[in-house]
Amino acid sequence: MLDKYADVGIEHIENLGVLSVDPFSEIGTPIEIVKLFGGKEKYLAAVKQLETEIYSMAA
Hints:
- By secondary structure, the protein is an all-alpha fold.
- Helix content is 66%, strand content 0%.
- It has one domain.
């Protein structure tokens, strides 16, 4: 996820459609990946946490 963020930015990884392209498509379908996080809400929370951690390190 971090590599994808570095490539395309936060707005693209917040979009669940990004889960249907490489490298995520190698892990599973978007639904399967979201389930690994515990659902859509938790996936989006993980994305926000990633963003928070990246920006806190940059400051």
